[in-house]
Design a protein that fits this description.
Elements: H1 2-9, H2 17-38, H3 46-68
Helix pairs in contact: 2-3
């Protein structure tokens, strides 16, 4: 988020929103959420304001479900 905010100020090539969401989905949702409010970037976009917290909640739910499942996941 900080890098994209810096690029926005310089009118440079921006990071596509799809890429930001992709990083969030593959595990960076907490960092994305913190970065949004730290750098005040994309906080007026409803897709980010709602989407990133929903992705984070889904990831937390999946971790809890994997932890409670009878199958042994060695990476948790």
């Amino acid at each position: 988020m900080g890098n994209d905010k810096r690029r926005a100020r310089k009118n440079a090539f921006r990071i596509p929103e799809a890429t930001l969401f992709a990083f969030s989905i593959i595990g960076g949702s907490l960092g994305m959420l913190i970065g949004m409010y730290t750098f005040r970037h994309k906080t007026k976009h409803w897709s980010f304001k709602l989407g990133i917290p929903i992705i984070l909640l889904v990831q937390i739910l999946l971790c809890v479900l994997m932890r409670l499942s009878p199958i042994n996941f060695s990476f948790i």
